[in-house]
Amino acid sequence: MRTRRSNRTKKYTLDKYDFLSSGDEREQTPKRRKTVDDNDDNFEAPAEERSAAEEDEDEDEEDVQMNDDSASEVNARERPSRQRPRSTKPPRPSYPGEMEVTGYLDIELIPPEGQHKGYVGPYERGMRGKALARTLYGPQPERIEMAHTLLERWSGWTLYPPKVPQGEDEPTDKGFWISGGLEKEARLAKQWYEQVRKGLPSDDVWSELSPEESVMYRFPQLSMPVLTGPHEEQQEVLMEPGTSYPLSQSNIPFDQDEDEDKVECGWMLDVGGLVLGMDWAPRRDKNPRQLLALAVIPQSDQDFYNYEEESVKPGFQQQGIVQIWEFKSTKTDEGFTRTSKEPAMLRKSLCLDYGRARRVKWSPSCNHIAVLSSDGNVYVADAGDLDDEEGGAYYKLEKPFAVLNLIDEYSIKATAIAWVNCNRMAVGYSDGSIALWSIYPQRLLSRHPVHHSDIIDMVSGYPTLPNIIASIPVGGTARVIDLQAPSYETTEAQRPLVHTQPGLLAYSDHLLGFLSIYPSASALNTIIGFLHHAHFPVCRRVFTGDSFLTCLAVGRLHPFLLIGATDGSLWCLNAQTEVFSNRHESTDKIRVFQHEHRPGHLFPPDSPAAARGVCRILHGFTVDRNRNSKPEAKLSAKKGKKLRAKEPAEVAVEEGEGEEDDDEAGDLTDPFRATLYEALTRITAIEWNPNLDHGSWAAVAMGSGLVRVIDLGLEKYPEA
C-alpha cells in the first residue's frame, strides 16, 4: 500500500539549523508554502488560512499520485502539479501568539570600509555664529540671549582673559547658567556637614611625622640650574625641592630684577618630582590665600628598571605624597588682584602608605580632599586647618573620611575620579565601568558599564550639569552619560580613538561642553576638539598642535584654554572665539613659554647639572595664527570616475575640518608631529584657579619638577 507523497514529506518535529548542511539537502526539501518574500516580509498568514491551504494541496497531490507506477514516481518531482485557483481571503492582522519562526534571515555583511556611525540632528558642521548659538543653547529665547551675552563678553579678548576689579561683580564669570545655584549648593553643603560631623572621626585623622619618620616621604635635596628670563639676557637660578621665587614680568626673580617698572606676575617653585595631578582649593570668600594641592611621585618611577625584581621588594612604591602650597595675593590701587612679592610656602605634605598618589581633587563645597591611590582605591579625608599651621610639616593619613573600593572585585582598580557635589563622587574603573558613590554614609549607589577598557580620563559638568559625566577609555569611543538616567541618556563620539595620555579632558561651564583630544585613532593626532553636551557625537576642532599633547585646562571663570605638549610648550587661546568663529575668520593663539630639560648624564660628574640636569624656560613669543579655518568641502568625484581611497586629510576637509592654507604645517599626516623630546621636557599638568578675583591664575607643572604659577590676566582699566 502506497502512502501519500504529502505524508512522506510532512515533518512534525522542528529541525535545528545545521551550519554544516549542504545545499543539495536543502534543495530536496519541497516547498509547501509561499516563500518568505511572498509572505510579506516574513509575516505568515493566520492559522485558519494556513490550514485551508494545506487541505487544498493535499487534495491535489492525492489526485496526481493515484495509479502511478514506480517509473512515474521517480519523475513525479519533475512534473508540475495541478493547483486549483485559491479563493483569497481578506488579510487579517497577525497576533504574537500566531507568529511562528520559519528559519534564519540573511544579514547583510558589514562593509570593510566606511563610517558605520552617524548623527542626525539640528547640529551641522557648517553652522557658525548666531545660528550655532541658537542650535546649541536654544530654543528658549532667554537662553539664546544669555549665549549672546557670553559671546559679547569675551569676543574682544582672543589671547588672555581680562581682569575684573574687586569692587565690580561680573555676572558672566561663575555660575552664569544657574542663577543662585552656587549659593544654594553652599548652603546645602553646610547643612550636610553639620549633620554628619557627629559621625566623623574627631581626632587622629592626621598624625604629624617626626623628621626621622618622614625620611621615606622626602625627595632628595638635589639642586638643578634653571635658565630663565629674556632670551638675550637669561639668568641662572638654582632650584631645590621646597624652594620658590616670586617672578616679575621679565620672568626672573623679583628681587633680582633691576627694572623700576617691574610688576609681579607669579611664582616658580620646585616640588622635586613629577606632578601627575593638581587642584586649587575652592574659596567661597575672597581670601587672599590660595591653596594648591599637587600629587607628586618620584621621577625614578618612570625610569627604566627591572620591574620584576623591584616589585617584590617590601614597600615598593607604597609612599604617596600630596603637597599643599600657599600663594598670597595683593590689591593694586586700581582694584585689581595681583600676585604677591612674598615667595610661595609649602604649607604641609600629606602622606599616604597605600600607594602612589595619582590624582587629587578638592571637594567643590567642603574642605575635603580626595586622593586616587595606585592601589586602586579612593581616599577622602578632611584637609584640616590650613591657615594657622606652620609650613613644611609632614602629616600621615590615619583615619580617612571614606574609602571608595570594590571589596568583591580585587582586580578592578579605580583609574579616574570626578566630584558631582559635596556628597557624591563618580569613579571610573579599569573594567570600563563608572560608579556613583555616596561619601557619607559610604554607599555604592550605582554602577554602569560604559566602556570596554580602562577609563583613562573622566570629568563632570559641575556646576551647571553635575550629573553629566564624560569619559575617555584607552581604546574605544569617548562617551557621555547622565547619571540620573543612565539607561537611555547616553551617547558617544562617532569615531573610535586610541588614547593613553590622561589630562586631556575638561569641562567648560561657559560653553556647556567638553574640550578633549579629537576622536581619532591616528598615531599623529595632535588636535583638540569641542563636544557640546547635547550634541556630543559632533566634534569641532579648536586647536592643532605641532607635537604630541599631554594636558589641557579650561578656565572656571572664563572660556580660555591652556594646552601643554611634549616639547614643553604652553599654548593659550580663547576657546569660545574658536568655536563660534566664521568659516574663513582667522583666530589667534600664543605660546606662553617653552620649557626644555637636559638630563644629568649628559654632563660631567663634577658639573652642577649632573644631579638633576638643567632646565631652560623661554618667553616672549609672538602671536601665532590658529590653523583651524574651515574651507568649503571639496566637490564630489564625477560620475563614472574610479574612486580611490581617501587620505585622512581629505576626509577631514570633506567634513568641514580642513586647513585653510596648504603651505601650513597642518597636515594630519605630518611626520614632524611625532618628534621625540626629552621625557622631562613635557608639561605634565595644568589647572586654572576657580576662585573669584583669582581666575586668571594658572598652575603649570613640568616634568623636571618645576611648577609655574602665572597670572595671565590683562588689567582692563576703567574709562575715565
Task: Note down, in words, how this protein is organized.
Its main location: nucleus. With about 725 residues, the chain is of the alpha+beta class. It folds into two domains: about 5-10 and about 20-100, no CATH class; about 185-305 and about 310-630 and about 670-710, Methylamine Dehydrogenase, Chain H. Strands 2, 3, 30, 31, 32, 33, 34 and 35 form an eight-stranded mixed sheet that branches. Strands 1, 6, 7, 8, 9, 10 and 14 form a seven-stranded mixed sheet that branches. Strands 4-5-38-37-36 form a five-stranded antiparallel sheet, with no helix packed on it. Strand 37 (about 695-700) and strand 38 (about 705-710) form a beta hairpin. The chain is globular and about 110 Å long.
- Helix segment tally: 10
Distance between the termini: 119 Å
Which secondary-structure class do the elements indicate?
Answer: alpha+beta
Number of domains: 2
CATH C-level class of the largest domain is Mainly Beta
Main β-sheet description:
8 strands, mixed
Helices and strands in order:
Layout: H1 5-9, H2 23-28, H3 47-65, H4 70-74, H5 129-137, H6 141-154, H7 181-196, E1 206-208, E2 224-228, E3 235-239, E4 244-248, E5 264-270, E6 274-280, E7 289-297, H8 307-311, E8 320-331, E9 337-339, E10 345-352, E11 357-362, E12 368-373, E13 378-382, E14 393-397, E15 402-404, E16 414-421, E17 424-429, E18 433-438, E19 443-449, E20 455-461, E21 465-473, E22 475-476, E23 479-482, E24 490-492, E25 497-498, E26 505-508, E27 513-517, E28 527-532, E29 535-544, E30 549-554, E31 560-565, E32 569-574, H9 575-579, E33 587-598, E34 614-618, E35 623-626, H10 648-654, E36 683-688, E37 697-702, E38 706-711
Parallel strand pairs: 2-34, 10-14
Antiparallel strand pairs: 1-14, 2-3, 4-5, 5-38, 6-7, 7-8, 8-9, 8-10, 11-12, 12-13, 13-15, 16-17, 17-18, 18-19, 20-21, 21-23, 22-25, 23-24, 26-27, 27-28, 28-29, 30-31, 31-32, 32-33, 33-34, 33-35, 36-37, 37-38
Helix pairs in contact: 5-6
